[in-house]
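Re: the request from the purification team.
They wanted to know what the chain is likely to look like in 3D before they choose a buffer screen. I agreed to run a prediction and write the result into the notebook, where they can find it.
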Amino acid sequence: MTIPTATEPAPMPHPNDDGDFAAARQAPVDYQATVDRVREDPRVSDLGKAERIAEAYSAYISAMDGAWERLQGRRQARHDWLAGQVPTGHGIAEDASPADRAALMAAFRGHYDRASSMDMKGRAQMLDEADRFGDEPARRAALTAIVENGEHHTTLRSRPDRYATVVAHLDELGALRGNSAARGFEWQTFRSQRVKQPREIDQIPELQAAQEARHAAWRRAGQMR
């Protein structure tokens, strides 16, 4: 595995080694420990317990949502970076002049139409010729058609001297888009084991009303000023 550069997002680790998965697994443990401690504290009123448990649940939800957002953000960043490393599409620079853009787009479209009409062998030959003569529009067109037709597994793997890195990027892109194992870990960690809202939260309005009633009674009796 290559070491990511300063501008390259790090590859996604296995869920067992991922910090955000670890944070999501720890969040319910911390929450439950807090809830158990509060529920067992005889010095705290029922309302006080309910309010502290509500705070703990809010912290738990924030921790889970934060871990999920960070995880998805890292995955998207890695996906977008990888996609940008694969030389498919027209690849015209954003600062190209209108005239240059039109000419380059026309060249790419012509090459792409030709590559799309070929069979796998023809596209491979077109790629080799483009590499040989340094024809970047033809190369990108051939690669685009090769990837779209799912031929990179054979065509590009058979040219490791030129395309080993591209193949590695495409393999990782495929894993990011359809990694069922990672999705399974996500479901288990972030969805199926998500803690339900504690009963105490629903009891807070009733407990607050009861406390206010007690305070009102004390005031009327002159016990609270």
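For the purification team: Residues 57 and 196 are 9 Å apart (CA to CA).
Please add any questions underneath this entry.
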